[in-house]
Amino acid sequence: MQNRRQFLLSGASLAAASLLSTNIQASTSEQKKRTISTSPNTRKLGKLQVSSIGLGVQNMSRKYDTSVPNRQEMHQVIRSAYEEGVTFFDAAEAYGPFEVERILGEGVKPFRDNIVIATKFGWNIDQQTGARLPGLNSRPAHIKMVVDGMLSRLQTDRIDLLYQHRVDPDVPIEDVAGAVADLMNEGKVLHWGLSEMGINTLKRAHATLPVSAVQSEYSMLWRGPEKSVLPLCEKLGIGFVPWSPLGVQFLTGWIDENTRFAQGDFRATESRFNPENLAHNMSLVKLLMQWSERKNASPAQIALVWLLHQKPWIVPIPGTTSLAHMQQNTASRDLSFSTAEMRELNDSLASITIQGQRLPDFVQVFSDVEAPEKL
Ligand SMILES: NC(=O)c1ccc[n+]([C@@H]2O[C@H](COP(=O)([O-])OP(=O)(O)OC[C@H]3O[C@@H](n4cnc5c(N)ncnc54)[C@H](OP(=O)(O)O)[C@@H]3O)[C@@H](O)[C@H]2O)c1
C-alpha cells in the first residue's frame, strides 16, 4: 500500500503521460458520436456533463462499519473534491434517511451552481419523521412530495439528476416518468435515471421520458450489468454510473482473508464476504496488488481506471469519508493504461471466479424488477 506522498508523486508523473480518454477507442459510429467530452476530466451521461469520477456521499452520515463521521470533515471532503475537479455528487433520500442530503447541501453551498447533484427517491420513507416503512413508494404524489423535501435539504431549487432508487412493483414506470416530467416542467428536476431496474422497464421509461443515466452495481467484483444493461445503455445513448465501484472496499486492499465485519456492518450480510468465499475471492485482490505494484498506483486506482476503460460513458462514484481516499480515487482519472495493458488485465480477470452473492436475498429481491404494465 502506498502512502499519500507516493500517490501525489505518481499522480504528478502520470498526469504528463497520455490522457485516459485518448486511450478509449470508439469502436462504432454510435460510440464515436457519444465521445463528446471536451476535457479528459469530464464525461457525458446522456446530455448531462459531469466529472469523469464523481463522489458517493452515502456514508457521510454513517460509515459501513457503523461509526459516525465528523460533519465538518465531511464538508471538507466535499469541498476538497470540488477543488480537485469533482463536479458529480451522488446522494439519496434514503441515506440517513435525509441526513446525507443535508450534509451534501451544506457542503456544496459555496459552489452549488458549478456542480451536478444526483439524488434518489423510491423507498417508502415517512416524510415527516424519516422512518423507514416497509417496501417502496413511487406513487406520483409521493415522488413530488419527496422532491420538495430534497430541495429543502439540499438548499437548492433543482435536482440535476433524479433517480428512481428501485422499481416500485405497484406503479407503472410510465406514471413515474409522468411525475418526473411534471417536475421537469416546473424546473425542479433537470435529468432523470433509474437504478437496478429490470431491462424492459428501462426501455419503457426511456420511451416515455428520455433517461440520462442508469445506476447499478458494477465493478471488477460484480460484472452483472455487462450481460444486458450496458448493451442497452449503449444502444439507447444512456450513461452508466457504477455504484460500489470499489466493491464496498474489497478492491482497495483494505480487506484480506482474515477480515470480519462487525455486527451492523451491511457487508457482513453479503455471502461473497463470508470466511470461505472471502478466502477464495482474494485472488482478485492479489491481481489488483500485482497491477498496483506495476503501475505505481493503489489497488483502488486500478479498479477505477478499469471501469473508466470499459466505456467512455461510464462514470464511477467511489464512496468515501476520507480526504486522502477521495484524492487518491479522483487521481485515478490521470492513470494511463495502454490497450495492451488493459487486454492483459482483462485476460487475467477472466480467469478469476467470484464466489458468493453480492447482496443478501432480502435486498436482491428489489433489483431487476419490472414495473407493472400501464393499463
Ligand atoms: N443505487 C444504489 O442502490 C446504490 C447502492 C450503494 C451505493 N450507491 C452509491 O454509490 C456510492 C459508492 O458506493 P459504496 O460507498 O457503497 O462503495 P465503494 O465506493 O465501492 O466503497 C466504499 C468503501 O471503500 C472505502 N474506500 C473508498 N476509497 C478508498 C480508498 N482509496 N482506499 C481504501 N478504502 C477506500 C470507503 O471507506 P472510507 O470512507 O474510509 O474511505 C468505504 O468503506 C455510494 O456513496 C452511493 O452514493 C448507490
Automatic annotation (TrEMBL):
Membrane-spanning residues: none
Superkingdom of the organism of origin: Bacteria
Keyword Signal tagged: yes
CDD domains reported in the protein's UniProt record: AKR_AKR13C1_2
Keyword Oxidoreductase attached: yes
Cleaved signal peptide residues: 1-26
SUPFAM superfamilies: NAD(P)-linked oxidoreductase
Domain NADP-dependent oxidoreductase: 53-347
Keywords recorded for this protein, A-Z: Oxidoreductase, Signal
PANTHER family: AFLATOXIN B1 ALDEHYDE REDUCTASE, ALDO-KETO REDUCTASE
Protein name per its UniProtKB record: Aldo/keto reductase
Organism listed in the record: Alteromonas stellipolaris
